[in-house]
């Protein structure tokens, strides 16, 4: 009887140890909050992300992936949209659009901003962190959770500031585009509608863009 209990105990102990050795990255915890974001087309998306890990671990590389299918069977070679060490490892269409909000990974902040959002950005995304323990052992972890991007139609309007106008005097009209994005500047077209119904597009010096 004792022998049996001892055998069972030993077995469970060794099982747990091998389990830990197989997955040394288990104590890394990645949190997306919220788990779904709904950016507007043409603007940008911020994916808020943070992680925790033991003090004896240092994160070196953050890689963001776009899930190619519902099961999110990622192929690292083709599905990465951001690589913190080598941007050429990211998909062409995302390379210049994605950046970390906080470049210093010791801040445990993995939030990214994606600029110039289009409907094709709809989908699930995952983060992989790789780093090393003080012992020198390397480890990597892919977030088991996913964060969803559901792109909505643009409904923010630019705001226009018109000063009092005096005939014959030049006037400065100020227009502010929606969003707080660092992507490509918006295309601005000023149009003028006189007393009639005709709409005239103003050209030349009417499209100064300041950010
Ligand atoms: C991971 O972090 C979240 C949020 O801080 C927490 O709710 C959760 O319990 C943590 N999980 C583990 C395994 O530490
Ligand atoms: C890191 O520290 C944790 C406890 O903080 C310990 O359980 C783990 O074995 C350590 N891992 C390495 C690789 O040193
Ligand atoms: C970056 O990644 C590309 C594509 O995988 C590879 O050809 C290149 O050698 C890498 N550059 C560095 C500095 O690792
Ligand atoms: C991550 O960094 C960004 C930019 O500094 C900041 O706005 C955000 O609040 C940070 N998130 C966390 C969880 O600290
Ligand atoms: C580090 O890796 C070596 C070789 O893979 C392994 O023998 C050792 O147990 C690992 N150390 C820790 C603390 O996990
Ligand atoms: C903005 O203008 C550029 C250059 O004329 C053009 O390539 C681009 O498609 C325009 N973008 C939109 C959203 O109209
Ligand atoms: C409006 O445009 C039409 C066609 O281009 C033109 O025939 C008409 O004279 C214009 N009206 C005014 C008030 O400019
Ligand atoms: C537009 O106006 C600004 C300010 O008056 C001037 O500095 C700039 O050279 C002008 N640009 C063009 C293309 O006329």
Automatic annotation (TrEMBL):
Q: Specify the species.
A: Salvelinus namaycush (Lake trout)
Look up the record and report any one GO term of the cellular component aspect. Answer: plasma membrane
PANTHER family linked:
BRANCHED CHAIN KETO ACID DEHYDROGENASE E1 SUBUNIT BETA,-LIKE-RELATED (PTHR12035:SF128), SIALIC ACID BINDING IMMUNOGLOBULIN-LIKE LECTIN (PTHR12035)
Annotated ranges, domain Ig-like: 158-211
The keyword Signal is annotated on this UniProt entry: yes
Q: Could you identify this protein by its name?
A: Sialic acid-binding Ig-like lectin 12
BP-aspect Gene Ontology terms? cell adhesion
Gene3D superfamilies cross-referenced by the UniProt entry: Immunoglobulins
**Keywords attached to this entry:** Membrane, Signal, Transmembrane, Transmembrane helix
Q: Which residues form the signal peptide?
A: 1-19
- What is one Pfam family matched by this protein? Ig_CD22
Q: Which domain of life is it from?
A: Eukaryota
How does the record classify its membrane topology?
Single-pass membrane protein
- Keyword NAD found: no
Localisation = Membrane
Q: Which InterPro entries match?
A: Ig-like_dom, Ig-like_dom_sf, Ig-like_fold, Ig_CD22, SIGLEC
Molecular function (GO) terms for this protein are: sialic acid binding
